[in-house]
């Protein structure tokens, strides 16, 4: 095993500037699992890191500075062509020594493991077993940390080699030129920060502090794998044979040095914690771990209850001088007995009992939680002067901040309502409290929750917190959510004929019946609504029956005043839900018999919406509702004469045609665009003629009656 002993001549690769992909392929193609050529190959890994840091793509040529390093790396590879390494490191089965050297620099950190074996009384043989070099991370790391990384790398490699060797290892020695690392290894790892502590703990598991020794940097062979490649890298190099002092007796090795321990910045900071006991300090659970105010309150009450049970109970045992059983010598000595002594009562055996939460514990827990919330929000010292409470008149009562109002003299009002407790709405306890009120009052509206909260608490920013609580409430999300509306379709071409006169494309619909007075009898009349699909104007006609002739007469009257339509839309009768059977049958018969044929003679194209799709007739159904709303103001249960009803229909038509088609964007605009602008050139109609009273409704003058009926509508 080892790197390729006869690598190919790299002149063909040096002929041009390589790309990132080619450099990576060439560097990674070298196979050196034992790290024997680490001083040369580490430059290739550093080159890949530099190219990666430049941010170029895989097929882009490398930068000029990287090209210089690339050529130098290819030149250094030629030194490996004639390199021959003897892999036999032990000529006898006697035990030997493992010597591990570690070093680090800003470029890389490395280790080298050597086998030292005694051949005769004064001769030693040193052979390189394995080496390893790694580039430093992209993120800057201090040199002491890199030296520690190198020491950990050497520890792992020495342990792996020792486990694989069949020859007994008599001694292990680890060499480093870092005085900081030597000081760390001889110190308790728990005194350092996690980065250093974790690595020192692993080193401590495999080595002993006395196995680590210091070596000068000039005699450290691991330093060759952290610098530039040596110019004379052959089998006689120090990297393969180890430092010269390993050939000598141990007495001539580098002497241990005593280093002055100085702060390295990796030690943990020591804090002196002084505890002070206050009378108001109470243990409270972490409110962030609770999702309900009731649970937090009960948990706090249980903690208080547990503390009371853990405290030793004291009882007063009075010794009376009057009882001879307690003091038999009292009559002779007349000695005074101690008044009372305190005895700690200890139960003979532990008992188990379920103690329910009583109101005193709950009230005490609530007071502790509210006091904790105020202390965290407004501070423990002078909370009345907190900037958030600058505009509020607050007072401190029984350890709680309360808002002082002007109703202190009111009777039969709870004291908590007179002076509510002040809380910050951003605190978690206040949010849990608002959530409790929101759920307790059946997820009611904001005003209800706000009214109930302010009976006892004055929470800053209450309205916004209630709104946010309702938004986060899962119940409100489920039961108050609205379905997602489907995307609206395109308008038909008849709705977009803006260059043609009104009512060129129209729609017709019936509504009613409405009762009118004819002589002494009541008869039914139906309203016929024509709407322009382009301008959204309406035209009203009164039909005496539901026959096809009556419908066509209404169409002729509309055409005489508005012009003959080219296209007419209507439903097919199935959408008249709630209408009488006669109206449905008449519309269906009219569609099937006379209306279509006669409309064709008038050069009118009649279109019907599909059955069971009333949404397609929304263009006229919505206007029918507007007309009905306008008529409901005047008609109600009255039975006007036919002429009065006709007048009311026309006035309702005028009101509907006076509605704005678009909203006014600016307040200085005189009026909005209405359908009347397309029909009569202006929005409003003629003013009312005369002034009439409600008594005129019973008169015989139809004009006065119609005017009185229509006055509320126009108002």
Automatic annotation (TrEMBL):
InterPro entries: Integrase_cat-core, Retrotrans_Pao, RNaseH-like_sf, RNaseH_sf
Top-level lineage group: Eukaryota
Native species: Bombyx mori (Silk moth)
Gene Ontology MF terms in the entry: nucleic acid binding
PANTHER family found in the cross-reference section: PHD-TYPE DOMAIN-CONTAINING PROTEIN
Ranges for region Disordered: 694-715
Name of the molecule in the record: Integrase catalytic domain-containing protein
Record field: compositional bias (Basic and acidic residues): 694-704
Pfam families, alphabetized: Peptidase_A17 (PF05380)
Domain Integrase catalytic per the UniProt entry, residue ranges: 498-683
GO biological process: DNA integration
Alphabetical list of PROSITE patterns matching this protein: INTEGRASE
